[in-house]
């Protein structure tokens, strides 16, 4: 690759310094990237662009850019997908990340010793390790079970490696958790563990597990939605330039993972198996969910208020509701947005939807988490492509602007929150319904600029799904509305 070509390629990319977690903008470091074939400890990666061209680029995995020096090194070639035309800010060499999370040998390392019994709360030992090694250090959980019987707040980390080789098992004292779970800062939600800071590298190596002992919670709440003070398993809050990978979440207490006030975060190779949990992101930017496996009964991944530049790729979802945009518009007269969300190369097995929207009505009834309404704002620039769905239980693409407090009367066309610029393409598989899309939009703020093309979903009788139901939709491309969407309250994007 010629130097000029390499510089032009790098101008359109951001590279992550795996060792420090720093994100470098090559457009501001042209000389650095153009003049060195091997800078510090680096790796050459091969990427394939969306237009099927191969390119090469250098990814730094050691040192700081102030002290890069020319020296020999062995290039590492890995295949990844570079979404050059979707999110030019991200170039993530996942295989290289996995080899670079252990840190330098001279850094302080804290190995957490387990108490060895469920009667022993390992939380003090865990928090002590984070206090000692949470900045410029490494924390190691051994291949054993740690009993977590108390809340954990591990904020303010910096350049910290966390290696989880065992299992964190949360206690079942429900009264304790309801009284002590930590505030998330959104929808009156709470959590069992807050983690935050800069340049965090949390690696479960494919088997490190967070087990929420969720069955006791499922039995206790008896299907009550958003039970007050019921904790999320893990909340990533006020974090930046960080990588979470190779983690397993089992039987989470409520939502598995919530992300809030964070930016430039990669969640890679995450496995979730819970009865009623999901991943949620709120007030975040530049968040990547790659290679997720989710088995659950709720939203697979949900983007909440003020989430921007969200990328969901190469993931498989089983049984749940699919990818959710919202719910949003819950806070009266508060302006919120969801922008630039991309879902690509996603496979669904038996989910209700592929991608669906849910906003609250225009009238406030009661207060969050289960009540609300009357919010302002918009969801814009949302796209989904290369989707593979098998035995969908409902329409793959739906909009419901009729979320409201349970059993409250509702006006399903009153929402002041607008949905616009939605693009869906290249969808294959099978469905149990002939409805491709059901868009129940607000009469106050109609949905605009919706494009759907290349959808091929087969029914059991061999025919193809071909119904598009619309209400208050303006400006369609690639499809024609064939009927009217129902106007009834819904928490799952349909009637």
TrEMBL record:
Q: What is its EC number?
A: 3.2.1.-
* Compartments it resides in: Secreted
Q: Which GO terms describe its biological process?
A: cell wall organization; pectin catabolic process
Q: Superkingdom of this entry's organism?
A: Eukaryota
Q: Which Pfam families match?
A: Glyco_hydro_28
Q: What is its main location?
A: secreted
**UniProt keyword annotations, A-Z:** Cell wall biogenesis/degradation, Glycoprotein, Glycosidase, Hydrolase, Secreted, Signal
At the top of the EC hierarchy, this enzyme's class is hydrolase
Any transmembrane segments, and where? Answer: none
**Which terms does the record give in the GO molecular function aspect?**
polygalacturonase activity
Q: Which GO terms describe its cellular component?
A: extracellular region
Family membership: Belongs to the glycosyl hydrolase 28 family.
Recorded hits in PANTHER family, A to Z, give: PTHR31736, PUTATIVE (AFU_ORTHOLOGUE AFUA_7G06410)-RELATED (PTHR31736:SF8)
- This chain's protein is named Exo-polygalacturonase, putative
Native organism is: Aspergillus fumigatus (strain ATCC MYA-4609 / CBS 101355 / FGSC A1100 / Af293)
